[in-house]
Amino acid sequence: MTVRPSPEKLLALGMSFWNAKALLSAVELGVFDALAEGPADLESLRTRLGLHERSARDFFDALVALKLLERQDGDYRNAPDADFFLVRARPSYVGGLLEMANARLYESWGHLTEALRTGRRQSENKDDSDFFAALYADPARLRGFLAAMSGVSAGAANAIAGKFPWKNYKSFVDVGVAQGMVPVTIARAHPHLSGGGFDLPPVGPIFEEFVTANGLSERLQFHAGDFFKDALPQTDVIIMGHILHDWDLEQKRLLVKKAYDALPAGGALIVYEALIDDDRRQNAFGLLMSLNMLIETLGGFDYTGADCQGWMTEAGFSETRVEHLVGPDSMVVGIKQAE
Length: 339
Prior knowledge:
Number of helices: 15
Protein name: Methyltransferase/methylase
Number of strands: 10
Largest sheet: 7 strands, mixed
InterPro entries: COMT-like, COMT_C, COMT_dimerisation, SAM-dependent_MTases_sf, WH-like_DNA-bd_sf, WH_DNA-bd_sf
Pfam family, one: Dimerisation
CATH architecture of the largest domain: 3-Layer(aba) Sandwich
Keywords: Methyltransferase, S-adenosyl-L-methionine, Transferase
GO molecular function: methyltransferase activity
CATH superfamily of the largest domain: Vaccinia Virus protein VP39
């Protein structure tokens, strides 16, 4: 019996921006923060958030239907995942990425068609100004961006801490370290390690504040520099997470080679991203992230594990492997031949 085609899946996908914007606005408004202390009824929650009475009930009930809130006897409360990950005061907060998506990416993605037609980025830096220079020059925007990077890196950081054979190494440096989520997570899990992070100078105070708050300032240090202009710190393991996809092919190859040069014999390079599957059919997030690089950068793009292994081999690494981490993220590990 022939199954008749249905438009349901197509319509749901095409209108999925409704779901996304409801979540992003909930984070922006502080819905989950307001309910962190306990349940609240409709009028109390509406008043606390300063919402108009016309739409508040529909908004809160939409969040219930999306499994972000729960409602019992007329009172709203956070669903478990939202309570754990979307309350700003909690160390597990990952909403920084969603805040950035709401403030910047949501509008920019409205110009995807133009980006596909022209090959030109469509974010606020579409005039070909240096996006990262402008970002790092604005303390408030920089702090928000680095918090977003912590959110997007938290899951991968835990997986790298657990899956990589850290017992064989003594030191590591995270290149493009942002707040320091990755080194903090790894250092907590492996007390024998020392290391730190490498990033542009304005990141230093934010990194040091985050590391100090986590009680790791004696083992984790900040290294200031520009990875295109300066040599990378010498260490046993170099990590590059969500870094290579910002740059064009030649810049990617250059950064991999600079990591190789900074490592000792037997040292390791860990590159992690939302790697596109080699057959380019499964990891939709990785492919969409590559479109995000089209919108955000001059020449950046995401890539497959096989692509990255090829760049590592070109740079001189004698062994490479790809290993899944969590969700859409995987890591490519390159080992420099021991003497």
